[in-house]
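Input structure tokens:
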């Protein structure tokens, strides 16, 4: 029932998002776009989680896993990176600096803190939004590899190791997709692929949590 409700809310939120671009500004609100995207990710994640429980029935608590500091940090960074990816899309911030690793020759562009007070730049300044998305993406990559390697070293489950290998491998693919999208001036096909890659990354991360010891027996 909960998934059906989320599906209905997704439709309502989609209308609310589109409505923001039907009056004076042809661009939708990046905040509504972010909410619409995150609700879609949540719905898809729940479907996959329930699918895993149906295929491999066992008592697994995602909440218990997230109480572990490194797991919580990894998950939080993934979510924040996706949120700022939505802001980048909503503000078309990816069209501003199409160079890497520097932004127009600078590590931190001079426009980063153009608005006052400084903190509103993280929500209203497309330059700051792109810079933040870059920083979060590479921070997520580093922490995810720390998490994955640490789990790989202590687990005895071959199933969990396979999911961890998938997580580490796809995290690299996702970063490469992001950088390529930026350097190619954000073509729609690359942008959509990058967005889909974010969903795949979330789903693989959920898989590592579902098959994480000590909540399972080895399925091999």
């Amino acid at each position: 029932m909960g998934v059906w409700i989320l599906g209905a809310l997704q439709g309502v939120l989609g209308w609310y998002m589109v409505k923001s671009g039907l009056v004076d500004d042809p661009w939708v609100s990046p905040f509504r776009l972010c909410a619409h995207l995150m609700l879609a990710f949540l719905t898809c994640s729940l479907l996959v989680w329930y699918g895993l429980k149906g295929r491999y029935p066992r008592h697994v608590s995602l909440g218990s896993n997230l109480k572990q500091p490194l797991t919580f940090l990894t998950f939080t960074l993934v979510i924040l990176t996706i949120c700022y990816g939505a802001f980048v899309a909503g503000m078309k911030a990816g069209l501003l600096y199409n160079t890497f690793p520097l932004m127009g020759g600078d590590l931190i562009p001079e426009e980063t803190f153009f608005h006052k007070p400084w903190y509103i730049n993280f929500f209203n300044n497309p330059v700051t939004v792109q810079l933040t998305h870059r920083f979060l993406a590479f921070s997520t990559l580093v922490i995810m590899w720390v998490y994955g390697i640490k789990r790989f070293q202590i687990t005895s489950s071959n199933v969990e190791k396979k999911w961890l290998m998938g997580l580490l491998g796809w995290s690299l693919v996702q970063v490469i997709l992001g950088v390529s999208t930026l350097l190619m001036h954000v073509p729609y096909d690359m942008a959509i692929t990058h967005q889909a890659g974010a969903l795949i990354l979330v789903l693989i991360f959920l898989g590592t949590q579902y098959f994480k010891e000590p909540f399972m027996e080895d399925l091999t």
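Residues 154 and 198 are 27 Å apart (CA to CA). The radius of gyration is 19 Å.
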